[in-house]
Write a structure and sequence with these properties.
single chain, 256 residues, alpha/beta, Rossmann fold, seven-stranded parallel sheet, 8 helices
Length: 256
């Protein structure tokens, strides 16, 4: 039987790949044979990640320092990918930040930081990979949204993050509808709470963590690897007739 999740020969770009779930996303794509371009602002950490993945899997990993909120840097990263690999099959738009500050206390600069990192980055990466995907008549764009983009929470005042991830969900739908006829799918993953460098000092702190555990039907945050299946589904031919969807991997949070 054909392995629908086989990514041998594919080329994937993963942003926000210097730590946290971005590293896990890169590893799971590599585990199925995809060559990688990994992006982040911290080049030294990217180099470490690249060495780790190449030592574990028989793939090539190209680390590129890139601030995905800056268009000229995104263009340079995409151009380098084409120069080295000749194509882009998968774009995993994962870069982002979170801020747990309510609107009445939120500074404009902090608002802009979240919106730029979480929404503008998806726009810029999609804009420049799509040009190559349209020529190839094939592509898989996967955006990292969040359960907090589907609703609010009385005890987690992540208002800028709510707005940003809701925008990602609907940008996903909009692009999916426009590019489906070109052989390009656009989907999103909506994680709940997963431990990362980003969440360690925000959502994993009390009282938010206890509130989350008491509210989530599964009673716990997500574990490493529990997003892998969703990533592989959207990146592979298993999802060839699926587009415009957000798959919430959230322990049942959005079900209640």
């Amino acid at each position: 039987m054909k392995n629908l999740f086989d990514l041998t020969g594919k080329v994937a770009i993963v942003s926000g790949a210097s730590s946290g779930i971005g590293v896990q996303f890169a590893k799971v794509l590599a585990s199925q044979g995809a060559n990688l371009v990994i992006l982040a602002r911290r080049y030294e950490k990217l180099v470490e990640v690249a060495k780790d993945i190449e030592s574990e899997y028989e793939v090539k990993v190209l680390p590129i320092k890139c601030d995905v909120t800056v268009e000229k840097e995104v263009i340079a990263a995409v151009d380098k990918t084409i120069e080295v690999f000749g194509k882009i099959d998968i774009s995993m738009n994962n870069a982002g930040v979170v801020d747990a500050v309510p609107v009445h206390m939120l500074e404009e600069e902090a608002w802009d930081k979240v919106i730029n990192a979480d929404v503008k980055s998806v726009f810029l990466m999609s804009k420049h990979v799509l040009k190559h995907m349209l020529n190839a008549k094939y592509g898989r764009i996967i955006n990292t949204a969040s359960m907090l983009g589907a609703g609010g929470s009385a005890n987690i005042p992540t208002h800028s993050y709510n707005a940003a991830k809701a925008a990602v969900i609907n940008l996903t739908r909009g692009m999916a509808a426009s590019y489906a006829k070109h052989g390009i799918t656009v989907n999103a993953i909506g994680p709940s709470l997963f431990y990362s460098e980003m969440t360690a000092n925000t959502l994993f702190k009390e009282p938010i963590l206890s509130y989350y555990n008491n509210t989530c039907p599964m009673g716990r945050p997500g574990n490493p690897g529990e997003l892998d299946g969703a990533v592989l589904y959207f990146a592979s031919d298993a999802s060839s007739y699926t587009t415009g969807q957000t798959l919430f991997v959230d322990g049942g949070w959005t079900a209640v």
